[in-house]
Amino acid sequence: MPKLNPPLTSAKCIRRYENNPILTPEDIPYISEAVYNAAVIKRNGKYIMLFRNDYNWDWELHTYKPGDSSVLGIADSDDGIHWNVRPKPFEAAIKLKSDEVTRIYDPRITEIEGELYICFAMDTNHGLRGGIGRIIGDFEDLEVLSLSVPDNRNMVLFPEKINGMYVRLERPFPVYGRAEVAKRMGWGHDRFDIWISYSPDLKFWGESKLLAAVEDFPYTNDKIGPAAPPIKTDKGWLLITHGVDLDTTRGKNGWEPKWQKRYCAGVMLVDLEDPSKVLGIYKKPLIAPEVGREIENGMRENVIFPCACIKEDNDVLKIYYGASDTVTCLAETTVSELVDLCLNGDDE
After folding, report:
1. Minimal CA–CA distance to 254: which of 326, 322, 177?
2. CA neighbours within 13 Å on the CB side: how many for 32?
3. What's the CA gap between 50 and 96, in Å, rounded?
4. Residue 178 carries which DSSP code?
5. I need a labelling partner for 159 at 20 to 30 A (CA). Which of 62, 169, 184, 244 fits?
6. 221 Cβ neighbours under 8 A, 6+ residues apart
7. Cα(259)–Cα(257) distance, integer angstroms
8. Which uninterrupted H or E stretch holds 269?
9. Is the pTM of this model over 0.90?
């Protein structure tokens, strides 16, 4: 296993589930090669997972074959650890595919005023779009409410209106303009950041502004983005993020000939009444790829990609994350510990 520089470690308050991963391709009753980046919601004491299920991998070209390559699977659990996968994927998402739309993936679920809403990424022939939809019934259908212009993704919704407005986090891809700034500043590569936008109805979005930039997270040099939907605390909104560092000297780290990126989870805190106001950012990784399927036997190794958090009654926070773009894993911590990291930066 190649050594990654600089070496990064997870925060001491992170406790990985001892029997990770909690979901693998072997658990899926239909074709599957990777299950990861899963959304999880808890309702009426039961857990529901909506996960990205990838297949149709071309081992010679080290990419997915043309055509169908991903669906959204559904699983249920009594404890948030052991999962029963439903026999069929989320058919309403499959129906969104067309000659123009090639893939729906990376779901995030938020409950707002008793309704379940899903944010998702949509690959099209003319760019990557971020979508928002309302789940109807027990995943019987999906009402699409909003689709962004290209290129935007990693959208998450706040679980309640703030000052009468819906709020979302997102990560646009300003490839040309941001890359030029990065080159001029000597920063290097893409530099994609976290933005915040507002809406009166979940359809029309505006008042967008930069929330946090790559340079605000010292362990990243390539991109950051929102991960799980925000968690409300008495100190502010707790945001789990992902961050990427790129090293062009890295070689083969997975199935592809060369994989030069490393993904970590991070955490930050924003104001309850004005979520565009940052109260604190933990300057080290919350979860770094260190063990098991996070660093070996994966499609793209050294990847931690959180997509869901469940706040339990006893202050415990379950964090669900994709490991090496291949399997789904679970870690636990407490909300209090994460708030302390953001405000005090102390992991002793």
Report:
1. 326
2. 24
3. 16
4. H
5. 244
6. 187, 188, 189, 214, 244, 245, 246
7. 7
8. strand 261-270
9. yes
